[in-house]
Automatic annotation (TrEMBL):
Keywords: Cell membrane, Disulfide bond, Glycoprotein, Ion channel, Ion transport, Membrane, Sodium, Sodium channel, Sodium transport, Transmembrane, Transmembrane helix, Transport. Residues 234-275 are annotated as: Disordered. One of its GO terms (cellular component) is plasma membrane. It is found in: Cell membrane. This is Amiloride-sensitive cation channel 2, neuronal. It comes from Heterocephalus glaber (Naked mole rat). Residues 262-272 have a biased composition (Basic and acidic residues). Its main location: membrane. The keyword Glycoprotein applies.
Length: 741
């Protein structure tokens, strides 16, 4: 009892040292830094490794916390097969809102100005443009002499005067069965502008009973040099007298022989000169690698150790397989594609490039021009053109060589002649809002190009009426006859249109879509912003474009730049639409060299032009729909308005309406599917799951592999009988005595 009281007194006087805490802590690497050995390079290296691992951990944790507070979301895109689907609702409207035959005199009195049939003085405007039969009927209805108006209801007027589905529906089938007008419903259409549970703190408190004091048996090995008083905390606390009493009390205690044997086993043996300087069993007991202490034990190995060894090897093998799989996956540099839609208050309207499919106006073609262009037009010089030609212009007598660029600029369709009507976001626009650009179709025009100091137009709303609406006359009577087939021959009538970003040049002959006369074409656009990854995760081009012609990189700019260099190298000239200062190709060079060279470049020499995908790209998705124009009701009006025949209106007039479907944009972004932080996390997780190790555990193994041969070379003192991480190091000076308490 006295010894117990002395132990409690000493325990109260001596706090737990940092070395004792480090030796018992589960934090890997701490015991190697705060050991009882003197400060050495080894401890300093362990400290650096520990601090480096801690810094990496903090960096990864900080990055993960920041990523969390960005509140990312993903959009899941999947296709699911279904046995049945609900058929969508289909809404259809006649573009003509009211039937003329159903408009009464009372309707005309109240809504005549709204219908543009009467002016504010109840008079019929522009009577000369109306059909004679309809004008007669309208004049009779617009005679309001002695007319007493009745109450008018706009909803009732729409319901009564609108087209009836029973009159329009000629045939209807759904899933092979006959449907009728009763299967349709009249509706109104409106167009809009465009758990964590917290528990109370006291609920987590458990009623704990006071622990009973349990007897604790402590075995310790203390080495003192005989004849000297030990120094250190224990030596100071226990004076010589206390040490002597302690020794006598320990040896006088009556214990059984089994307990004596147990204590002797716990005492460390004195090493011999031939022993290994670092015992493998001792290293396994102090190593943080799970299972090693059960495999490497003192004494002869038994079945238990063999089973532990098999389990350890299997776990190690599984760990290495998983690590190999994760590393192989990382080195494949996978990526995922993230799809998202972002709402916006405004969007930059795209550039719109349009070209007439006919490059040269017939009225501008003289006989010298025809002889010069004969190779491009497929006309032999001996053939009769069969059409009247214009008189030669001043250029024919100037003595200057014929220039194809100058010819196209003079003879192509003029926008001032083609553009009949232009409106952007409800406001008027005109030819001054377009810029001239040359393409394979000759002289073309770009709306909202953003060049020459012009600001890029923006739109604040989506839907029709909030974009670009133009009416064009394609002037088919100015089209050249087809004398033969060449690469420049066009069989189409209409215009080619390309919707593109202001940062890329038009490539309308390959990327444009056609718009035919006699139709109003609606083009609903959606802006798409694409972000690609550079190698090795993707194939995009992350560097700026090395070109003398274009400032920003795009696939279109790359192809035009490459084709230009290819023609200059092989034909010593360039086409009209190509940039640079090389001379323009003549019609003979077009036929003999330029066109065949481009065909060869596309078909055979694909390695010459390798245009990689840019890392940031803006493109526009399009949905096209068309209606016939003009209607029978408007053909005569348009013919009189533009002083043309009804046949001419049907063959030459088109309307193009380009707008944003909704005021948002779509982002399609490639993201790294597996980064280095994920790789380290997976390896760390597999390492902890299978072998209970960490990066510092691996350093322990390397430390043991290094220290073992080094200690053998340096020699080992014979007096070290303690574990280095238990008690402080005391140099051996004589005979050692072992005390057991």
């Amino acid at each position: 009892m006295e010894l117990k009281a002395e132990e409690e007194e000493v325990g109260g006087l001596q706090p737990v040292s940092i070395q004792a805490f480090a030796s018992s802590s589960t934090l890997h690497g701490l015991a190697h830094i705060f050991s009882y050995e003197r400060l050495s390079l080894k401890r300093a290296l362990w400290a650096l490794c520990f601090l480096g691992s801690l810094a990496v951990l903090l960096c990864v944790c900080t990055e993960r916390v920041q990523y969390y507070f960005h509140y990312h979301h993903v959009t899941k895109l999947d296709e699911v097969a279904a046995s049945q689907l609900t058929f969508p609702a289909v809404t259809l409207c006649n573009l003509n809102e009211f039937r003329f035959s159903q408009v009464s005199k009372n309707d005309l009195y109240h809504a005549g100005e709204l219908l543009a049939l009467l002016n504010n003085r109840y008079e019929i405007p522009d009577t000369q443009m109306a059909d004679e039969k309809q004008l007669e009927i309208l004049q009779d209805k617009a005679n309001f002499r002695s007319f007493k108006p009745k109450p008018f209801n706009m909803r009732e007027f729409y319901d009564r005067a609108g087209h009836d589905i029973r009159d329009m529906l000629l045939s209807c089938h759904f899933r092979g069965e006959v449907c009728s007008a009763e299967d349709f419903k009249v509706g109104q259409i409106s167009f809009p502008s465009s758990t964590f549970f917290l528990l109370p703190a006291n609920s987590l408190v458990t009623n704990r009973k006071p622990l009973k004091k349990m007897p604790i048996r402590i075995f310790c090995s203390v080495s003192f040099s005989s004849g000297e008083v030990a120094s250190g905390p224990l030596g100071d606390a226990w004076g010589p007298q206390q040490q002597k009493q302690q020794q006598q009390h320990s040896w006088s205690n009556s214990e059984s022989e089994e307990e004596e044997e147990e204590k002797k086993k716990m005492l460390r043996k004195e090493p011999n000169e031939g022993d290994s300087p670092v015992d493998l069993v001792a290293f396994a007991n102090s190593c943080t690698l799970h299972g090693a202490s059960h495999v490497f034990v003192a004494g002869a190995p038994g079945p238990r150790q063999a089973l532990w060894a098999v389990a350890f090897v299997l776990a190690l093998g599984a760990f290495l397989c998983q690590v190999g799989d994760r590393i192989a996956y990382y080195l494949s540099y996978p990526h995922v594609t993230r799809l998202d839609e972002v709402a916006s208050t405004e969007l930059t309207f795209p550039a719109v490039t349009l070209c007439n499919t006919n490059a040269v106006r017939l009225s501008q073609l003289s006989y010298p021009d025809l002889l010069y262009l004969a190779p491009m037009l497929g006309l032999d010089e001996s053939d009769d053109p069969g059409v009247p030609l214009a008189p030669p212009g001043p250029e024919a007598f100037s003595g200057e060589p014929f220039n194809l660029h100058r010819f196209y600029n003079r003879s192509c369709h003029r926008l001032e002649d083609m553009l009949l009507y232009c409106s952007y976001s409800g406001g008027p626009c005109g030819p001054h809002n377009f810029s001239v650009v040359f393409t394979r179709y000759g002289k073309c025009y770009t709306f909202n190009s953003g060049r020459d100091g012009r600001p890029r137009l923006k739109t604040m709303k989506g839907g029709t009426g909030n974009g670009l609406e133009i009416m064009l006359d394609i002037q088919q009577d100015e089209y050249l006859p087809v004398w033969g087939e060449t690469d420049e021959t066009s069989f189409e009538a209409g215009i080619k249109v390309q919707i593109h970003s202001q940062d890329e040049p038009p490539f309308i002959d390959q990327l444009g879509f056609g718009v035919a006369p006699g139709f109003q074409t609606f083009v609903a656009c959606q802006e798409q912003r694409l972000i690609y990854l550079p190698p090795p995760w993707g194939t995009c081009k992350a560097v700026t474009m090395d070109s003398d012609f274009f400032d920003s990189y795009s696939i279109t700019a790359c192809r035009i730049d490459c084709e230009t260099r290819y023609l200059v190298e092989n034909c010593n000239c360039r086409m009209v639409h190509m940039p640079g200062d090389a001379p323009y190709c003549t019609p003979e060079q077009y036929k003999e060299c330029a066109d065949p060279a481009l065909d060869f470049l596309v078909e055979k020499d694909q390695e010459y032009c390798v245009c990689e995908m840019p890392c940031n790209l803006t493109r526009y998705g399009k949905e096209l729909s068309m209606v016939k124009i003009p209607s029978k009701a408007s053909a005569k009006y348009l013919a009189k308005k533009f002083n043309k025949s009804e046949q001419y209106i049907g063959e030459n007039i088109l309307v193009l309406d380009i707008f944003f479907e909704v005021l948002n944009y779509e982002t399609i972004e490639q993201k790294k599917a597996y980064e280095i932080a994920g790789l380290l996390g997976d390896i760390g997780g597999q390492m902890g799951l299978f072998i209970g190790a960490s990066i510092l555990t691996v350093l322990e193994l390397f430390d043991y592999a290094y220290e073992n041969p080094c200690e053998s070379l340096r020699g080992h003192p014979a007096g070290m009988t303690y574990a280095a991480n238990i008690l402080p190091h005391h140099p051996a000076r004589g005979t050692f005595e072992d005390f057991t308490c």
